């Protein structure tokens, strides 16, 4: 007997999220999550860009009393993951030969 997942009409429900389409957060829950993310981003940017925070940040950096995890997460929530650029400098030796026919 053939497995039901191998028949052409059977579809896997692994990618379906409750109340939505495959691969997309569904319904009200997805909208609420996006709204929460926007609010967290707004609040963390407000904190990071405030002059009072920047003054205390400088003091903590100079004294060595900063908590790196908290600081990194605030920056991540505010501005997103920094772009990762990988620069490759590989020198490939090339041998050029010219042949002239006479």
Task: Walk me through the structure.
By secondary structure, the chain is mainly α. The protein has a domain at 28-79. 47% of the residues lie in helices and 0% in strands. The protein contains 3 helices and no strands. α1 (27-49) packs across α3 (68-79). The chain is elongated. The mean pLDDT is 75.
TL;DR of this structure?
The chain has 102 residues and is mostly helical.
Spell out the blueprint of helices and strands.
Blueprint: H1 27-49, H2 51-63, H3 68-79
Helix pairs in contact: 1-3
Instruction: Please count the helical segments.
Output: 3
User: How many beta-strand elements?
Assistant: 0
Helix content: 40-55%
End-to-end separation = 73 Å
Mean pLDDT: 75
Which structural class do you get from the secondary structure elements? mainly alpha
Overall outline: elongated
Main β-sheet description: none
Q: What is the H/E string?
A: HHH
- Uncertain segments are none
Strand fraction equals under 5%
Radius of gyration: 27 Å
